[in-house]
Amino acid sequence: MARLPVVVVLPDGSKWYSNRHPQTVKWVDGLAADMIYIEKPMPGCWQLLGDITEGSTIQKISELDIDVEPFPQPLYQGERLKVTARLLGDNLTMRMPGLDFMVEWTAKFSSQHVIGEDNFVTGTIIVGAYKDNGENLDEVPDDGVFTGAQNLDQPTGHYTLNVTARNNLFEREYVMPFVLSEQPITAEMVPNNDPLKGIWQIQLTVDDTQVLLEQTHFLFELVEPAGLQMPITLQNLTSTDQILYLPKVTDFGSYRVKGTAVSTTIDGREIVLNLPEMFFNLIEPPTPGAFS
Fold first, then answer.
1. In which domain, by residue range, is 78 found?
2. How does residue 1 score in pLDDT terms, banded at 50, 70 and 90?
3. Is the CB of residue 158 less than 8 Å from the CB of residue 177?
4. Residues 73 and 122 in one domain
């Protein structure tokens, strides 16, 4: 059963409801709490009536702001990044049940249009949001820490990050310039001179001026034509340029290779990179004696 919004009783005995209150009052009712903006509140004792959870309190906040974790630099195209943000009330982290549903967080990238960069013609893109629901990269629900998962599969270049937190009561903004760099690790399918043999190779290249070779590892997934998936790992790299031989394939059709690289930057930051997908086909040989 849904919780009903509270009734606010003013010091003079008058009452406000979520759907009936002065125009100067802004009200957001959530699943487990209400947020109410009041200009110049009346001095005295305020009360709440209604379906109030035991232990609930009225918190008076004079100033709202947001604290957003800045992007690390360098930041790489296709990186799996975890960043956090908090809603602050009088410089303290706000925490209440259902706050995740009461505040909408949006992250956008805007190209700085530097001539010659891949993102020169890119405009403004919505790349993600911040959630406090205990799912995906968010560790604990309703702890006041909103976790963002941005889509970094964007053209490289100079951007401006714009993070906004808003609802019907307020809107706050965080702005940061940053650079999205090319991946320091690449994986490319080697052209096969004899596609009838069913043996393919992947060329792996690691830029050891940016990441540590000995702490670079690969996980690939070979998806066969029938949808079966075969994991392939490579943990011990011996060179910055290395060939990975895929298992011999026998089923005719299209194959897909999905890859992830984990590594450590030279300044000690752990990174996870989603590598571009690769494709190849095992062609059925012509029937002996066939002609066109």
1. 64-181
2. very low
3. yes
4. yes
Is the Cβ–Cβ distance between 142 and 104 less than 8 Å?
A: no
Cα 7 to Cα 35, 48, 50: the distances in Å are 12, 6, 6
Instruction: Provide the residue count of the chain.
Output: 292
Average of per-residue pLDDT values in the chain: 89
Residue 158: half-sphere exposure toward Cβ, Cα within 13 Å: 7
181, 211, 238 — which closes off a domain? 181
Which of 32-41, 99-108, 134-143, 176-185 shows the lowest per-residue confidence on average (mean pLDDT)? Answer: 32-41
How far is Cα 63 from Cα 60, in angstroms, rounded to an integer? 10
- Please give the model's pTM, rounded to 2 decimal places: 0.83
**Is residue 30 domain-shared with residue 109, that is, in the same domain?**
no
Range 129-133, long-range pairs (CB < 8 A, 24+ positions): 129/104, 129/105, 130/84, 130/85, 130/105, 130/163, 130/165, 131/100, 131/105, 132/99, 132/100, 133/100
Q: Which pLDDT value is given to residue 41?
A: 81
Read off the pLDDT of each residue in 247-251 and give the average, rounded to a whole number: 90
223-236 in b/e form (b: 16+ CB < 10 A) is bbeeeeeeebebee
CA distances from residue 120 to 78, 127, 157, 179 in whole angstroms, order as listed: 18, 17, 8, 13
Find the CATH number of the domain harbouring 227.
2.60.40.10
Q: Do 278 and 227 reside in the same domain of the chain?
A: yes
Count other C-beta atoms under 10 Å from residue 116's C-beta.
6
Cα–Cα distance between 189 and 166 in angstroms, integer? 45
> In the predicted model, is pLDDT for residue 2 greater than 60?
no
Q: Are residues 79 and 25 in the same domain?
A: no
Quickly state the pLDDT bin for 51 (edges 50, 70, 90).
Answer: low
pLDDT in tens, 216-242: 999 999 999 999 999 999 998 989 999
Does 177 reside within a domain? yes
In a domain, 274, yes or no: yes
